[in-house]
Amino acid sequence: xxxxxxxxxxxxxxxxxxxxxxxxxxxxxxxxxxxxxxxxxxxxxxxxxxxxxxxxxxxxxxxxxxxxxxxxxxxxxxxxxxxxxxxxxxxxxxxxxxxxxxxxxxxxxxxxxxxxxxxxxxxxxxxxxxxxxxxxxxxxxxxxxxxxxxxxxxxxxxxxxxxxxxxxxxxxxxxxxxxxxxxxxxxxxxxxxxxxxxxxxxxxxxxxxxxxxxxxxxxxxxxxxxxxxxxxxxxxxxxxxxxxxxxxxxxxxxxxxxxxxxxxxxxxxxxxxxxxxxxxxxxxxxxxxxxxxxxxxxxxxxxxxxxxxxxxxxxxxxxxxxxxxxxxxxxxxxxxxxxxxxxxxxxxxxxxxxxxxxxxxxxxxxxxxxxxx
Length: 373
Fold this sequence. Notes:
By secondary structure, the chain is of the alpha+beta class. It has two domains: 2-89 and 204-372, Aminopeptidase, CATH 3.40.630.10; 92-188, CATH 2.40.30.40.
């Protein structure tokens, strides 16, 4: 394990040096493109964390929590306002190598929905090794040779027990010679597609867009600091649940709460979008998730910031998410502000670029005005 970490450290340093001088002045769309192709699954967030470190403005004080979370602090009066997003997305990992060189895979955490694994069938994937990325494809039978019943069974009853990744080798030794090791993350091929109507599509696009938004906000605050103490963080291991009974909070959120202990927390998340009127709509602005019937001071401050900037927001009544749960107490306030994403947790997530830009503007406005502390 230590050898694996050492190898990755060299790659991270090279990555950070390459990025440091190129993206500081870029807008949020360019930042999204910059982080989109970097794999980041639960327990393997180091590459994306290194990328974010590299594109943050120089001179910012970087803080960590020992779990993989990266944060920057802007000094000011009062208890800190904590603004954070997830660093890790859903994905898979290498669980074994067969004698003829195929890779078997498993998940580091539970899937976001029942059909998540089925999207792998026949898809190109990337295995992120300590030596660099290795291309592969999840093998499938020749579909035109199967009966309709067999095709239906293959898709509807697909499980990871039937998933084998072909990386173009013929033995376990050849696979290991390519750098393949057990627990290497396996993610969908990072194909970013630009659609009509100022929309983009790609796997884990919502997660990467939100991470880019926070980088853009940090860049802006580095030029014009916020009124009060502010911490912006990209939290690791948010898909892993902490131990306990009942509603279980995200492990990364629990650690962040212990480390920074903020008075006010803004969770910047993604949320499933739709078109039927019962879900948030892409292109209509960020979503304020209302976990309580009565308006909190934090929610009211956000609404005033949006009104002052002429930003339209959407509202959705829902319980606190595992990311928000650790911060929902009598001595603190928490609010989730989400980016609407179509086809969330599929290889074809779709985001509206207007929503990304407006989300950035709203967060900046809120922090610049001090959020009516």
